[in-house]
Amino acid sequence: MLKSHIEAFLKAKSKKSKKTASTYRTAVTSWLAWAEGEGVEPLTTEGVIGFHSYLVDTTTPPTVSTYMAGIAGFLEFMDVMGEGTAVNMTRVRYEVRNGPRSYSHMNVVQLDDLRKREMPRLVEYLENYPIPDERRGDYNVRLSALRNIAIFWTLYETACRIGEARRLDRSHISHDTKTAVVTGKGNRPHTLRFGYPESRAIPAILAYLAERTDRGSALFVSHSRNSSGKRLSDTSLHLAIKNAMAATGLDERLTPHDIRHYRAIMMLRQDMPLHVIQQFLNHKDIGTTRAFYAPITDEDDMLRHLSRLNS
After folding, report:
1. CB neighbourhood size of 118 (10 A)
2. pLDDT averaged over the chain?
C-alpha cells in the first residue's frame, strides 16, 4: 500500500517536473532504506527526525534540504489523500529548522580550513588505533577494532560515501585491480579505487576478514551478541568513525562525510583535473564537483599556477 502511495505522489510531481520527481524518488527511497536498516517505522515523527539527523551527519546541506522537502511533500500528499500517519509535521519542521547543527554558518573555504587543520590528527590516530586482545562480555571488541580500521581506510582511500561502504560485500573487492564496484548515489555503479595515495585499506580489510568466523557476504558487520554477523547499518557505520573522531578530539562540526571532502581537496591541491575528481567521487554532473571544490583555491594556489604561464 505504501508503495502505491509513493508512486501516486511521484506521478503527480512528474507532471510539473520530471527532474523534481526523480530527486524526490531518491529522497523517499533513501528514507525508507534507512528506516529498514535501523528497524524503525518511517511514518512516525521519530522516523522522519531520525532520518534528518542522519542526513545532517552524512551529506551536504543542499541535499538535506532537498531530501527533506521531498519527504515533507510526500507526507502532505498522504494527508491530502486522507491517509493519516503518526508524523507530527509541526515538530518535524521545528527540528529541521532548529535541530541538529549544520554548516549553514560556515562557507566552503572555512570548512576547508577546518578539515585541513583537523583531519591529519584523525589519520594519525587511526594509524595507531589500539587493537585489544580480548572480548568484553557479549561484544567482540577486537574484531570491532579491526573492522573500524578497515572502514576508515576504505573511506579515506576511496572517498566513498558511508552508504557505499555499507553495501560492500567481500566478493566486490578485486585484489588484482585493487577496485570494488558498488551501487552508488542515484543507483549508479561506482568503482572504488584502493591504494591511493598508498595501500592501507585492503591490508586492513584482509586482517579483519582473517579473524572473522562467519560466512556472511557483507564486508562490514556487527560483532555484538544480538546482531553478530549482520551487515552494519549506515548509522552504525557512521557511528564507528564518529566515535574515533570524538576520541581524537576533533571539532564537533566535522562528520565522517568530511573524510570524502578532505580527500577530494587533497587531490585538487595536487593538481588533479576537476573532471578526474568528478569521476573518482562518482558525481553525475561536473557542476556538482565544481560547486564544492573550485572555490577552494587560495592565493598560494593561484600564484603557483600563474607562475607556469609562458610569457
Report:
1. 18
2. 86
Q: Which residue range forms the structural domain that includes residue 12?
A: 2-98
Report pLDDT digits (tens) over 190-201.
999 999 888 999
User: Is the CB of residue 175 less than 8 Å from the CB of residue 194?
Assistant: no
What is the C-alpha separation between 19 and 25, in angstroms, rounded?
10
Domain count, the chain: 2
Dist CA 119 CA 250 (whole Å): 8
Measure the CA angle with vertex 56, ends 55 and 62; round to 5°: 85
Cβ contacts of 113 within 8 Å, gap of 6 or more: none
Check: CB of residue 242 under 8 Å from CB of residue 255: yes
Distance (Å, whole) CA 149 – CA 174: 19
Residue 104's pLDDT is what?
A: 45
Query: Once rounded to an integer, what is the mean pLDDT over residues 62-74?
Result: 89
Query: Are the C-beta atoms of 99 and 214 separated by less than 8 Å?
Result: no
C-alpha span between 146 and 132 (Å, rounded): 9
Residue for grid cell 577496485? 179
- List, in order, residues 6 or more apart from 124 with CB less than 8 Å away: none
* 184 and 206 assigned to the same domain: yes
The residue written with cell numbers 521545528 in the block is 94
Residue linked to cell 577530494: 264
Q: 7 and 14 in contact (C-beta within 8 Å)?
A: no
